[in-house]
Design a protein that fits this description.
Layout: H1 10-14, H2 21-27, E1 31-36, E2 44-46, E3 49-51, H3 53-62, E4 68-73, H4 76-85, E5 89-95, E6 105-113, E7 116-120, H5 131-134, E8 139-142, H6 146-153, E9 162-165, H7 168-177, E10 183-186, H8 188-197, E11 205-210, E12 216-222, H9 228-244, H10 246-257
Parallel strand pairs: 1-4, 1-5, 8-9, 8-10
Antiparallel strand pairs: 2-3, 5-12, 6-12, 7-10, 7-11
Length: 266
Amino acid sequence: MIKKNNFYPLFVYLCLIYSGACHAKASLSNNVIFVTEHLPPFQIAQQGQVSGFATELLKAAVSETDINASYIVYPWSRAYNLAQERPNTCIYSIARTPQREQLFHWVDVLTQTNSHFIGLKSRTDIDIKSVEDAKRYKVAVLKDDVTHQLLLAKGFKEFKNLYVVNNTQSLLKLLVLRTNIDLILADNLTVTYRALYNDIAPSQFAVYLKVNQSPLDFYLACNLETSKETIQAIKSGFAAIRKSGQYQKISHEWKQLVPDGKDIIQ
């Protein structure tokens, strides 16, 4: 029988805080913690619940298994570290990159993400045609995000031309409120949603450069100590919802909610 219990026994939740023998017990159970960040429209945290396009796909797949799932929203950096440290902990939506390849079990693709250098449209002094050009400006990124790792690899330096924050909401506020921040590197769709969510007109922002390394696939990934049986069960769940058409149905419904192209930051 399919179980749809989204609540966790207390001892499993405490495993997020305490290490030791608790890990061994968790790894032998069907309890799995799915950690994520608030990143509309992919993951939306509201009134203690987690929804969003990627979340609905994941919940549908998990409902095809006997996994007892818990969905918890954290700042991205904390979610990223927990998924590496805690058995039976999975993270979404995470970009799959060569640097991360050996850190997780990569379970299935949820959606795609693009990276853009975005700034205020009023900044007529900004002129970039390459990532190298962007080094002349102060760029803000999300801590431990693929954008953070990309710019570090390209030679950006924290406290010089790279400013790191803990959530996407802070990124947008930096552009509006801080004159010393010139650009952010983020997905234009998520920035659009964040702007609309905060009653900010997306039209005041502009894409100055799309990074060639994108788009990247957004995945569900799990801690390396998660059992093969659990990984396979989730993979089978995704296969089941694709076969039944539920995956396509959820995708179609969310695409209807995406702002029209004219409203997305260009």
